[in-house]
Specification:
- It is a single chain.
- The protein is mainly beta and 193 residues long.
- It has one helix and 17 strands.
- Strands 3, 4, 6, 9, 14, 16 and 17 form a seven-stranded antiparallel sheet that branches.
Length: 193
């Protein structure tokens, strides 16, 4: 194929600049999507030992920003936090959970060990299960922060939600989710070329 000219004779696309123009046109046509949400109120008794908690179910998140309005922060009354993809492509999700109400075994300072918590980012296409390493702590505040992330391949209108799972070797079997340090972020990276 050859060079594409406009009606006034100026060059629009040549074989040399085709890929660059295709990428620029594709990027311009994509709906922008980025969000960051924070849980501002602590929620107690959300998960027992070995059970899964869908973030946002018992305590809604507060949106810090939501470009494109594609994030639902959860209801706090049974409906989980949910992101809906506006475009087909890759999305980066980062989740941080502050687990609270963990009590060390008696007598302290023996550690509590969490057993390879498989936290998940669940999309319509697949589940991204992220195995955290075995972690121990001996602090007395009964808190532990876990961060997990994934680059997810999503189609337009696919959804994603976020799960936290904790299994403890000893100590408290029912935990809470702490405020301020529990966050969910997501960003559209781009469409495949």
């Amino acid at each position: 194929w050859g060079t594409l000219y406009s009606s006034d004779g100026s060059v629009i696309i040549t074989p040399e600049n085709y890929l660059t123009n295709r990428i620029n046109l594709q990027a311009a046509s994509q709906v922008k999507a980025a969000f960051h949400a924070q849980q501002l109120v602590s929620v107690s008794n959300v998960t027992g030992d070995g059970t899964i908690y869908n973030l946002g179910t018992n305590g809604a998140f507060t949106e810090i920003y939501d470009y494109g309005n594609h994030f639902y922060p959860g209801s706090g009354t049974g409906t989980k936090a949910l992101f809906t993809a506006p475009n087909t492509g890759l999305y980066l999700f980062i989740v941080t959970v502050l687990a609270t109400n963990l009590t060390p075994p008696v007598p302290p300072p023996a550690p509590i060990t969490t057993n390879r918590d498989p936290n998940s980012i669940v999309t319509s296409n697949r589940t991204y299960t992220l195995i955290n390493p075995v972690m121990s702590y001996t602090n007395t505040d009964g808190q532990q922060t876990v961060t997990f992330s994934a680059i997810a391949d999503m189609d337009a209108n696919d959804t994603a939600y976020f799960q936290y799972w904790l299994q403890t070797s000893v100590g408290t079997k029912t935990i809470g989710i702490g405020s301020y340090y529990t966050t969910i972020s997501g960003h559209f990276i781009g469409a495949p070329i």
